[in-house]
Specification:
This protein has 218 residues and is α/β, with parallel strands linked by helices. The protein has a domain of 150 residues: 3-Layer(aba) Sandwich (Rossmann fold), CATH 3.40.50. The strands form 2 sheets. Strands 2-3-1-4-8 form a 5-stranded parallel beta sheet, sandwiched between helices. A 3-stranded antiparallel beta sheet has the order 6-5-7. It binds adenosine monophosphate. The site of adenosine monophosphate (AMP) has 17 residues, from helix 2 and helix 3.
């Protein structure tokens, strides 16, 4: 299974990718997670990327593309992969086509998670993360019963720098300007499936919708 998840920040790509990874033998590749890990560990890549992440701007294409060229050649990608947060620009999508061609691989599907803008702002600006175990809470939808401490491990629950409301608004602007053109890019080249990703009023899980959309099952 080789799938691209497209969608604005806060559309739920990471959550869905984690669900797919639990059920199927695939590598979940989140460029945002890779950058955050590098920032945390003060690696050269992290030092380069940090200011972009904190301000909600995109890391320059050449850096992202070089990183993904290496990542997609790692052995765990042979079982299949879900790309979460890459590509995010047309040049990145073109570079991905080239890498896949070189590796003689084809995509099974491109899935767009559709969510309205205000839902995204509440999801992201309300999101709080445990510094210790990574558990995710939301001030509006699912606060920690222990306030600023994590229910699971007692760690400090904090707000990601790029989840501050003004940064969320600029991340959304970046999405509409730089990433939304990929909807046409993939609409022309591959079958693009559009899934309604607002959770309220859903009859079945997003994972079931995705399985139907790309024709996979256990
Ligand atoms: P995410 O967790 O996917 O929202 O990504 C967090 C941040 O990482 C983004 O706001 C960008 O600064 C950076 N980032 C992640 N993926 C990419 C990408 N494909 N191209 C450029 N920047 C990226």
């Amino acid at each position: 299974m080789r799938i691209i998840l497209l969608g604005s920040p806060g559309a739920g790509k990471g959550t869905l990718a984690a669900e797919i990874e639990r059920k199927y033998p695939v590598a979940h590749i989140s460029t945002g997670d890779i950058f955050r890990e590098n920032v945390k560990n003060n690696t050269p890549l992290g030092l380069e990327a940090r200011a972009f992440l904190d301000s909600g701007r995109l890391v320059p294409d050449d850096i992202v593309i070089a990183m993904m060229e290496d990542r997609l050649r790692e052995p765990d990608c042979e079982k299949g992969f879900i790309l979460d947060g890459f590509p995010r620009t047309v040049p990145q999508a073109e570079a991905l086509e080239k890498i896949l061609e070189e590796l003689d691989l084809k995509l099974d599907g491109v899935v767009l998670l559709d969510v309205d803008e205000e839902t995204v702002v509440r999801r992201l600006s309300g999101r709080r993360v445990c510094r210790n175990c990574g558990a995710i809470y939301n001030l509006f939808f699912r606060p920690s019963s222990k306030g600023d401490l994590c229910e699971k491990c007692g760690g400090e629950v904090y707000q990601r720098e790029d989840d501050r409301e003004e940064v969320v608004r600029s991340r959304l602007k970046v999405f509409y300007e730089q990433t939304a053109p990929l909807i046409d890019f993939y609409g022309e080249k591959h079958t693009l499936s559009r899934l309604a990703a607002d959770r309220s009023g859903r009859h079945h899980s997003l994972l079931e919708d995705l399985e139907r959309a790309v024709g996979i099952s256990e």
